[in-house]
Amino acid sequence: MAFHAEGLVAIIVFYLAILAVGIWAAWKTKNTGSEGDRSEAIIVGGRDIGLLVGGFTMTATWVGGGYINGTAEAVYVPGYGLAWAQAPIGYSLSLILGGLFFAKPMRSKGYVTMLDPFQQLYGKRMGGLLFIPALMGEMFWAAAIFSALGATISVIIDVNMNISVIISALIATMYTLVGGLYSVAYTDVVQLFCIFLGLWISVPFAMSHPAVTDIGLTAVHHVHQAPWLGSINSLDIYTWLDNFLLLTLGGIPWQAYFQRVLSSSSATYAQVLSFLAAFGCIVMAFPAILIGAIGASTAWNETEYGVPDPMTKKEADMILPIVLQYLCPVYISFFGLGAVSAAVMSSADSSILSASSMFARNIYQLSFRQNASDRELVWVMRITIFLFGASATAMALLASSVYGLWYLSSDLVYIIIFPQLLCVLFIKGTNTYGAIAGYLFGLVLRITGGEPYLYLQPLIYYPGCYPDENNIYVQRFPFKTLAMLTSFFTNIIVSYLAKYLFESGTLPPKLDFLDAVVARYSKEHMDKATLVKSDNIVLNELAPVNPRHSLTLSSTFTNKEAFNYVDSSPELSNTEDN
Questions:
Q1: Cα 211–216–219 angle (5° rounding)?
Q2: How many CA atoms lie within 13 A of 560 on its CB side?
Q3: d(CA 553, CA 496)
Q4: Which of 101, 498, 505, 529 sits at a 20 to 30 Å CA gap from 240?
């Protein structure tokens, strides 16, 4: 393949433009946040993100390189097709559910990160445990899409994959480093526009190529391969449902999502942003679906790609850049490449900032240095943004199973963090004992179910499992959802059991070593003033909460435990008095 100098120039111009927008956003908002609030401004952008920018940045967070490449691949792969392209509908439903049920309670209570309510109710040690799957999800996701970007660029302009990965990661890390959420949000606006324009410009040219059969015909008839609409085999229904629930429910408990929710100017705006992003995800999926359909409708032996086809060459995951390269004019393929690059950076920067935010606030500050100055926290965030960006880049270059690691970590987000989030926000009376038990049960059930991408053989063989070509058993049973439900109910059962045993006197108070039931107040459990600042919340949006006067089992189980001692906070008391 020839080296395309003009393609390299186009990519450089695009990257410089994105970097310029990121630096401009950082300069424009450098004085945002009062003295002592700069770290929070970096995390949640001063909580003044409007509907336009907020809608764009939340959409761009989901519409990444994995989203558009994965959607095109699912539509293209024979035997799967559009029926298995679950991401557009799954993520859109995830955003709708997040807006309906999760955005308002999280934003109205003035949290700064997704882990705040866990540390508030379950303690800092439990927050640290939940940080592990959250960090793994963000880091492996960033590494996976950096890897995809490098392969895409190497396909179209034939430059070294490692160089393209390093440069892309450096640019995304650089503007995130200087501007935090503001830079990420403003560059997302530009990147989403590039994705939309770049892919839609490419589609008509690819569709009109002489080697492409009418996609309406190939949707339902076998021409070059099986119809691209696809079908769901009766044996695979449970697998399909398991994956769909993982996308829909497991797409909610991500810091990248809640960072946008918590940065909105009000709880109502947070809900509206979620609904706008759900619509945006559907709209942005259409060109990727069409490109996958075009790939399935192409006689590849009539193109410069030649034979065998991408599926036979095991390049189905690269169908989008292959269509851009071989079915579009050169100058059009570069527009499409810019779109893919934009998609990757719009997700990678969000993941890097999310991981850094959780570490700086929930691990460094709330667990170890509660008296850390704002300047100290800013520097911790900057250092960790660089370190996490470098780590994601290293994994993209060195790990052979980045996607396998991301699949496993995203499963852990669904199986461990989602049920914990349900309990901490909506189930009244759960405590640290139940949270730890649910965490461990979910983790064990997921790992013992195996992971073909990592060549991890299962220890539990559920009904319907079968060996793949590598003799690794694949589960048809929806064991991921089973693990999630087990984690959820274990949390509730163990929490209520522990509460009963301690409050009935069956167990002496000294055995409450986590201070989760008997102790009225513990340093392990942080009060509301530690987690939120009164000037970041609208007081009339807060649900009225009264202090707990009794710890008897007969008292009504409410989530008031999470907001005890509000009246003991001078900062909040003074605000309410005013």
A1: 95
A2: 16
A3: 9
A4: 101
Please give the full DSSP string across 313-344, using - where no structure is assigned: TT-GGGHHHHHHHHHS-HHHHHHHHHHHHHHH
The number of helix segments (H) and strand segments (E) in the chain equals 22, 2
The CATH number of the domain holding residue 103 is: 1.20.1730.10
DSSP for 392-423, please give it. Answer: HHHHHHH-TTHHHHHHHHHHHIIIIIHHHHHH
Based on the structure, what is the number of domains in the chain? 1
pLDDT per position as a tens digit, 74-133: 999 998 999 999 999 999 999 999 999 999 999 999 899 999 999 999 988 898 999 999
Q: Report whether 219 contacts 228 (CB < 8 A).
A: yes
Please provide the size of the chain in residues. 578
- CA contacts within 13 A on the Cβ side of 189: 15
Domain of 190, in residue numbers: 5-419
**Six-digit token pair at 320?**
């989008």
Reduced to 3 states (helix: H, G, I; strand: E, B; else coil), residue 93 is helix
Q: How far apart are CA 478 and CA 501, in angstroms?
A: 34
Residue 508 domain-assigned (yes or no): no
SS3 467: strand
Query: pLDDT per residue over 179-211, tens digit each?
Result: 788 888 888 888 888 888 888 999 999 999 999
CB 127 within 8 A of CB 119: yes
Indicate the residue type of 41.
A
Q: CA-based diameter of the chain, in Å?
A: 80
Write down the pTM of the prediction: 0.85
Extract the tokens encoding 508: 């002496």
Cα 63–chain centre separation: 11
